[in-house]
Amino acid sequence: MSDGVLCFAHNNGKVNYLQQAEELAKRVKQHLNLPTTLVTSTSSELQNPTLFDKVIEIADNNENVKRYYNGTLNHQRLSFKNNDRVKSYELSPYDITLVLDTDYIICNDTFKYAFESKHDFQIYKDGVDLCNWRKHAEFEYINDTGIPFYWATCFCFKKTTETKIFFDLLQHLVKNWKHYEQVYNLGSRNFRNDHVFSIAIHMMNGFEDNNWAKILPGKMFYTLDRDIITKIENDTLTFLLQKEKYNGEYVLASTKDINVHVMNKFSLGELINE
Questions:
Q1: C-alpha distances out from residue 258 to 4, 153, 261, Å
Q2: Looking at residue 122, which CATH number applies to its domain?
Q3: pTM of the predicted model over 0.90
Q4: Type and span of the H or E element at 232
Q5: Given phi > 0 = left and psi -120 to 50 = alpha, else beta, which region is 141?
Q6: pLDDT tens string 100-118
Q7: Do the Cβ atoms of 129 and 223 come closer than 8 Å?
Q8: Contact 17/49 with Cβ under 8 angstroms?
Q9: In whole angstroms, what is the distance from residue 159 CA to residue 164 CA?
Q10: How far apart (Å, rounded) are the C-alpha atoms in residues 99 and 83?
Q11: pLDDT of residue 248
Q12: How many domains does the chain have?
């Protein structure tokens, strides 16, 4: 059995996702001792392709536009490509695959236990905001009256008949997204992998509150794009966390040996550059 990490990165002219992927591959090797495969449509912009076990070039025709924040007071509307994650089953060269966002900073070996699990598919359902007094309804349910929210930020799967059905279902949802976004009352919001995965899990659960998808080891800590990461020193991370009702005001916080999903792509990129 082969184990490895899969990540997706498409540069958009402002955010260097490939640079984030290179940093991720280094940390995956350091903490998990696993190879990383990169899927990208912009491989010509890679600085250090030898960090990856394999680089897969793929055409990604889906392009959304969203606001990228760099703290509370600064944002830009930029394009992003994000619909190829549903092809993880067919793209992964591994028997057991951990899929990670490039902005996930690995600081410990918790994910190695996912590869030891007997379960075919693992994902996080409940994330933990480092600023724990903030509440985010959008990360609990996909809408006000909808189904539970699952994070497509990271998930682990074995190549089995059942997970193949799941990924085929994901691709069916993407191909018919206009229909399903109406069925699940998502309106005209941007396509999100979190929503597609949440709907597919709901279907695999038999449209009930079941547990087809198992929970990944540990907890998924995150910071918002309104927050700012100010320092990365080995496995100690320092942040300015946006106060809930005071735009432009922050609380200083730090973590040590904790994996963190950092949504502010700009401040993360600046630190990686340093």
A1: 21, 16, 10
A2: 3.90.550
A3: yes
A4: strand 228-233
A5: beta
A6: 999 999 999 999 999 999 9
A7: yes
A8: no
A9: 7
A10: 14
A11: 84
A12: 1
